[in-house]
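Action item from last week, closing it out:
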Amino acid sequence: MDLVKLQGILDNASFAVLFITMLVYWIGAAFPNLPYLEIVGSTGMAIANLCIAALLGARWLEAGYFPLSNLYESLFFLTWGITTMHFVAERMSRNRLVGVVTAPISMSIAAFAALTLPKEMQVSEPLVPALKSNWLMMHVSVMMLSYATLMVGSLLAIAFLVVTRGQEIELKGSSVGTGSYRDRKYQLRKAGEPIGEVLATEATAVFSNNGSVAVMEPPAIAVVLSPQRLSLADTLDNISYRIIGLGFPLLTIGIIAGAVWANEAWGSYWSWDPKETWALITWLVFAAYLHARITKGWQGRRPALLAAAGFLVVWVCYLGVNLLGKGLHSYGWFF
């Protein structure tokens, strides 16, 4: 089969599979007692991941260079990275609700690349001289993987905010643990309200899965969340922290590799190009997130808000700066 036709089949197939997988995860969230949906969802993500890997491999064979030279290729590489990190997060959390947030973003990116981009932007073109370097694979692939990882971690933090309904939740215990299998106590309060003393006999809920206890404020100022929702919030908070902790070193390595490549290509390690500037801003945002969690002991809503802001910053760094103006990185169709 012709490689171009194969690519057209694979990109549409990956979108279709991701769309069905998204529906499976959403139905599973709405009806958690339905059997086999978790297996179906994970299988769908695996099929989509393999379809995208095959698509990128076909383009590599057709063009003769690593497929990260234009927007179409980078979008599918980003989708592949997100679906890959989905399995890492799902493995860590042992919770199928991870797919509720990762499947929609994966499907949306694949749909934009396969169905919205003009055909001339989907065709492999000869590399411009600046991209004819082994650093293309090293720098751009690591940067894209860092974007995918940071996006997944940030999405889980946003899910934490949704699950907790925007209320202040103080998570007692270390951020570095074993996910939902830690012993923790939770105290809920409205923003600005002091934390009061509550007797265990007044408002206590025992988790059946790990023995943790949820302690809530008196009804006058409390927002009642079920023990299951609190346990899910704990898991999302911990897993988002771990995933971001994985993405940050990748971002650091990618920026360093880019600086070395820039010196080789342009004679300067750093030129304050818009893409470089926003990469630094992205690095600073997630560095502040990790600093707040590790040294300040932040947990719960405050770091989740910072991670949610980081999600927007990653998108600005990846696409936004190319829409706002041209720079040294403008030759790659927005990557």
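Closing note: Residues 3-164+232-332 form one domain.
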